[in-house]
Specification:
Blueprint: E1 6-12, E2 18-21, E3 27-38, E4 44-54, H1 58-64, E5 70-83, E6 89-102, E7 132-133, E8 139-140
Parallel strand pairs: 4-6
Antiparallel strand pairs: 1-3, 1-5, 2-3, 3-4, 5-6, 7-8
């Protein structure tokens, strides 16, 4: 069985989101995500990951996301082949996402949402409405199924 799933929380770098369109008019929003991790020595180490969102939500994401925003990414890892200026082919790994939302700010317990509610409801691109709650009060996310707009 092939599994390829990537869920990340990080910060959009100061370069911010960029939008581009391919020859067929399909929009792609790209940005760099900084993911911080504390090391054993107490220092914070950062990894920088390229992220791309392709399809009908790319334009909304590019307009509403800003440099420095904390975001939650749900997607997969993808190899992307590119060319260099001297004509050689090279490639890199990118996070191809179908879901981007601004990460909620930490709140006190009295501000916690009711089951089935979300602080970020309406801020997600590619997600639709907030997921329904299960009997235990945890959100139940729908299974992702590929569509024509989904990344390959």
């Amino acid at each position: 069985m092939d599994l390829n799933k990537c869920v990340l929380i990080g910060h959009i770098t100061m370069a911010g989101p960029k939008i581009s369109w391919n020859d067929k008019g399909v929009a792609t929003c790209t940005f760099w995500l900084r993911v911080d991790e504390p090391g054993k020595d107490g220092a914070v180490y950062s990894s920088y990951l390229p992220v791309e969102l392709t399809g009908k939500y790319a334009g909304d994401a590019a307009e509403q996301l800003n440099a420095g925003d904390d975001v939650l990414i749900d997607g997969k890892l993808k190899y992307k082949s590119t060319g260099t200026r001297d004509g050689k082919k090279t490639g890199t790994i990118v996070v191809s996402t179908w879901f981007v939302t601004k990460a909620p700010a930490p709140t006190a317990p009295q501000d916690a949402p009711a089951p089935g509610q979300s602080h970020t409801q309406g801020d997600a691109w590619g997600a639709g409405p907030a997921p329904a709650a299960t009997k235990k009060g945890k959100p139940r996310y729908p299974k992702w199924r590929p569509t024509a707009e989904s990344p390959n």
